[in-house]
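Re: orotidine-5'-monophosphate structure - here you go.
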Amino acid sequence: MIQQLIGKIQKMNAPIVVGLDPMLEYIPEYIKQAAYEEKGETLAGAAEAIWQFNKGIVDATYDLIPAVKPQIAMYEQFGIEGLIAYKRTVDYCKEKGLVVIGDIKRGDIGSTSAAYAVGHLGKVKIGNNSYYGFDEDFATVNPYLGSDGIKPFIEVCKEEKKGLFILVKTSNPSSGEFQDKLVEGRPLYELVGEKVAEWGSEHMSEDYSYIGAVVGATYPEMGKVLRKLMPKSYILVPGYGAQGGKAEDLIHYFNKDGLGAIVNSSRGIIAAYKAKGYEKFGESAYADASRQAVIDMKEDIQSALVKSGVVR
Ligand SMILES: O=C(O)c1cc(=O)[nH]c(=O)n1[C@@H]1O[C@H](COP(=O)(O)O)[C@@H](O)[C@H]1O
């Protein structure tokens, strides 16, 4: 799957991911009203609204982007109905040819991680049959529990030809509380990055590993160090746009081959119609505003990469 992701990034010349984090406050009133009329102001009504909203964005952007990243919490808050909307979104994006990164941030003791891995990336066995559960292409994973919490995910990825993005240095303001703590004189995120590089080197697919990392756009100096520590790992970079990450910060996350990083924007794309500069679209053309925001993001990153000499 990492090869498919890289192939799509190259073909579309777009190292970007659209984050499908559909909070109700971003959904146009007319979509919510129609969903509530059909299913009431209920969990099912909310789930219908987020599905319709997502479909609009995917239809308007799928020809420009290699991948999407649905964030499962935004669906889980609506219980089972929300999870059904998550699964509908995953399936629809795959039908449209998009690579789906399930932002599930799981990780537990080995046996529990194995169940998460089976449910999201692999197949569960029931008698003589086996079934895919959510069937995303990649998943985000939390490494706090150590190797035995990660290995079951790697095993399933190996079998299914899927991939992981392991949290190394997150984009949020408090990420340093634990991640930057010095351990034997070195920040913890560097030690985690080295471990990701080690797991990655054991699980290669041509030039890159299918074991990647998450490093936030909001810490570019750390990103620079981590890029060097994990040369074969793809880096998923959240934090561009709504969290303040700038295109010029992102150049550090790429390798000299112009590859190695894929940048996420969620609110900056899906709620573009509410943002400054996109007023002309209005609520009814929210999906066109998202399309324009994808084009703008792509140009912004491309021009920073060209300026810095990473790509020509
Ligand atoms: O794993 C992630 O995707 C992630 C890691 C991280 O360090 N920071 C981070 O913001 N994210 C996710 O990336 C998305 C960022 O959303 P926006 O800030 O709206 O672009 C959310 O889905 C976050 O959960």
